Amino acid sequence: MKSIVLNRPGEFSAIEAPLPVPAPGEVLVRVRNVGICGTDIHAFAGRQPFFTYPRILGHELGVEVVESRAPGSDLKPGDRCSVEPYLNCGRCIACRRGKPNCCRELRVLGVHTDGGMRSHVCVPHAKLHRSASLTFEQLALVETLSIGAHAVERSGLDRDDTVLVVGAGPIGLGVIQFVQEAGARLVVMDTSEARLAFCRDRLGVSATLNPLSTPSPTALPELLGGDPPTVVFDATGNAASMRASFNHPSHGGRLVFVGLFQGELGFDDPDFHRRELTVFASRNSLPGTFEHILRLIERGRIDTRPWITHRLPLEDVPARFSEITRDPGLLKAMIEVP
Questions:
Q1: How buried is residue 180: exposed, middle or buried, by Cβ count under 10 Å (0-12/13-18/19+)?
Q2: CATH 3.40.50.720 in the chain, residues?
Q3: Which of 28, 60, 97, 277 could disulfide-link to 67, CB 3.0 to 4.6 Å?
Q4: Which residues pair with 30 in a beta bridge?
Q5: Do 26 and 69 contact (CB within 8 A), yes or no?
Q6: How far apart are CA 276 and CA 256, in angstroms?
Q7: CA–CA distance, 144 with 142 (Å, rounded to integer)
Q8: Which residues contact 65 (CB under 8 A, 6 or more apart)?
């Protein structure tokens, strides 16, 4: 089978490898679509922490079942599935308490172990989420959407909340979709006018704010009827933005960090206590979140069509990855596996 291997930062190669054989409890799947995400781009640039080379990237996967060696599973050849790429141990305290996304020994396909930039891969049967009607491209987008969905779940958001989403990259866009699904009032902040225009034109966001062109501290409350937001999601992974996000929530508000960076964050403790802020980290997502997203897309409640801006065949990844991922118009690139 054809596999694309990232040998070292900046260098892909195409190799032929034997077809993998599923172990007991695993399913052999044929990869049909692979979404390119920030993790892959950081690995290519040599900026992905806890990463070793060589590695087969790819964890946003739409796949077709080929063979199952899981007696307890009802998956059958030809079934279309989204892959939950978080391989947890099932034994640690986080797993035992229903938080497999926080597993102490978590391995992520395409990061800690080889992923889906190849024609076939074996995955545990419990990590496959089936849909009878969605396309492989839609299935490959579920993991990206699940990051935003889990962050919204973490926040305890309801319709009475007012929301600021900071950062309109792919993760921020996922958050936006589920804030809209919850029916809360929303403002999106970004320094890119192109991304703000995308939010307005393609996602129907009515209130956007560029802090570079509208730096007034009253601009955000004015968009929300005079009060600061009760919930803030920072999806930037930028240290300066994340520090500034402590200033945005209302008294009694919540702050959710969806993005992360490698370093320490500081904040003013008296102000933190005075407002009695609640700060959440949001990591990956949960199995039930995948199922929830599949049903929403199937019912037309989440529209994935605006997401994909670039497509390329698997064989073109070594030659075109750098070009595509440097395109300022990139939102989501989708690899097509023949």
A1: middle
A2: 151-281
A3: 28
A4: 64, 120
A5: yes
A6: 14
A7: 5
A8: 27, 28, 29, 30, 75, 76, 77, 78, 79, 80, 81, 128
> How big is the chain by its Cα radius of gyration, in Å?
20
Q: Is 40 helix (H, G, I), strand (E, B) or coil?
A: helix
Pick out the chain residues at pLDDT < 70: none
Given a contact cutoff of 8 angstroms between Cβ atoms, the answer to whether 72 and 125 are in contact is: yes
Other CB atoms within a 10 A radius of the CB of residue 21 amount to 10
225: left (phi over 0), alpha (psi -120 to 50) or beta: left
Predicted local distance difference test score (pLDDT) of residue 217: 85
* Cβ atoms within 10 Å of 46's Cβ, excluding its own: 11
Q: Where in the chain is the domain with CATH 3.90.180.10?
A: 2-130+307-336
What is 269-307 written as a DSSP string?
A: HHHHHHTT-EEEE--S--HHHHHHHHHHHHTTSS--TTT
CB neighbour list of residue 308: distance below 8 Å, 6 or more residues apart: 137, 141, 331, 332, 333, 334
Q: In the CATH scheme, what is the code of domain 2-130+307-336?
A: 3.90.180.10
pLDDT value at position 72? 85
Separation of alpha carbons 56 and 79, rounded Å:
24
Q: Tell me: domain 151-281, CATH 3.40.30.10, correct?
A: no
- How much is the pLDDT for 69? 93
Write out the two tokens for 267: 């904040």
- Within 210-258, residue ranges assigned H as helices are 219-223, 239-244
Q: Could you tell me if residue 297 is left (phi over 0), alpha (psi between -120 and 50 degrees) or otherwise beta? A: alpha
